[in-house]
Amino acid sequence: MENLMQNPFVETAANFSVAVLSLIVFLTVFETITSYKNWEEIKSGNMAVALATGGKIFGVANIFRFSIEHNDAILTMVLWGTYGFVLLVFSYVMFEFLTPMFKVDEEIKADNRAVGLISFIISVGMSFVIGAGIL
Which of 70, 111, 127, 134 allows an S-S link to 59, with CB 3.0 to 4.6 Å? Predict the structure, then answer.
């Protein structure tokens, strides 16, 4: 099995599979954290939710990019990816905390695209910061 993982095509497929599975799990967690149903809102054309969700997807994928780049073992890659995801969730919670004049989730659900864009930028930006710390 170890010899099989030395093949770059197999290793890439393994990393991809694990990252996609992790992304699905993490998006499910985000779905429970937010006060709206992401995919229902996106289906109905809510651009703010699409921006916020897109930022989360990009953020998680970017964190896994750094994790894959710096780790050979899949388990270590998943652990760093999970840790990065927790920090990304913390960033989202901090965004809510630092804007006491409005509720981020309510504004995004109401299709406030400005708030959705800022949410997108926070997720993307913080994923680079988080990724830079991955060893």
Answer: 127
